[in-house]
Amino acid sequence: MSTPETSRFVRVQVEVVLAVDDADAVTKAALRKIAGESEMPETERAHAEGAVTEDTAEALAYLVDPFDLVSQVPGVELQQASWSSERIDYDPDSPDWDLDEDDGDDSDG
Predict the structure, then answer these.
(1) Per-residue pLDDT tens digits of the chain, which is 109 residues long
(2) To 10 degrees, the CA torsion angle through 26, 14, 7, 109?
(3) Domain count of the chain?
(4) The pTM is what?
(5) How far apart are CA 21 and CA 42, in angstroms?
């Protein structure tokens, strides 16, 4: 992989489905994390607190950090990340949730 035509950048796509058994605990954890953000402007803090209080999916998005996934991997540096969360209907027996299914991306992995 050291040829000039090969990019050193790799896109890793991950889809995770979580079962929330205690929405209150998730919300409280997100609020604690927000409270610990000493550099956060007050208007941003108020917006974040409102978002995580109203929607457990927003609280999870606030708690899940892609940097945490790769920070201990030697030889890599996170360049860019984006993520979101949403409530979904989930049926693990449905063929729509086949994790081995190709997402239609024909590029080599």
Answers:
(1) 555 678 899 998 888 889 999 999 999 999 999 999 999 999 999 999 999 999 999 999 999 988 888 999 999 999 999 888 888 888 888 887 776 655 555 444 4
(2) 170
(3) 1
(4) 0.71
(5) 31
Q: Hey, what are 75's tokens?
A: 């030889």
In a domain, 17, yes or no: no
R_g (Cα) of the chain, nearest Å: 18
Residue 49 — φ and ψ, nearest 5°? -60, -40
The 10 Å Cβ neighbour count of residue 1 is: 6
- Grouping H, G, I as helix, E, B as strand and the rest as coil, residue 24 is helix
Structural domain includes residue 106: no
Distance from C-alpha of 46 to C-alpha of 52, rounded to nearest angstrom:
10
